[in-house]
Amino acid sequence: MLQVQLLRIDSRLLHGQVATNWVRILKIDRIIVVSDQVATDAIRKTLIKQASPPGLKTNIVPVERLIRVNHDSRFDGMKVLILVENPQDALRLVLGGINVNKINIGSLSFTSSKQMVSDAVSVSKQDIEVFTQIHNQGIDLEVQKVSSNPKKDFWKILKDKHLVSDD
To answer: Is 15 among the residues known to form the active site?
Structure first.
């Protein structure tokens, strides 16, 4: 199995903060961007590869492919940073066997169907349902833009906003 150093939800995927901060702090072997949409979009793939730190391998794969790779013994122990655009893909990975005890939430873009819950995170009703499923798997949810920022308990944020009920 892959050694997941961080599973991060960020609607921007790979950008400067991820490339410079998290990669250095986590001492990873590879960045894996996991998105069914991006994996088939040549322009977005090119832009993501350009944002990748020099000398660090970056792969862009669909969700099911990463689940298969995770079960391939050739990749056992590889230290990876996994980036997804949305909580739905994070849940698919967790249910597919990606082993994590926490998920980092960097940024979820605002749309008219979403509510802002922090300075960089907005959620829809569907997102809240998915985060509830992730939480019910015993996985901690934390908001943290970069490693030097304090971690915030995302489940507590949702409870304080009365978007989820107490456990």
So the answer is: yes
Q: Would 167 be classed as within a structural domain?
A: no
> Residue 77, Cβ neighbours under 10 Å: how many?
9
Residues in the chain: 167
Asked if residue 81 belongs to a domain, the reply is yes
Quick check: 33 and 59 in contact, CB under 8 A? yes
Amino acid symbol at 13: L
Contact 146, 21 (CB under 8 A): yes
Q: Which of the following is catalytic: 15, 71, 135, 162?
A: 15
What pTM, to 2 d.p., does this model score?
0.91
CA–CA separation, 81 and 67 (whole Å): 14
Mean per-residue pLDDT of the chain? 90
pLDDT(126) > 90: yes
166 in any annotated domain: no
3-state secondary structure of 167: coil
Q: Quick check: is 165 in a domain? A: no
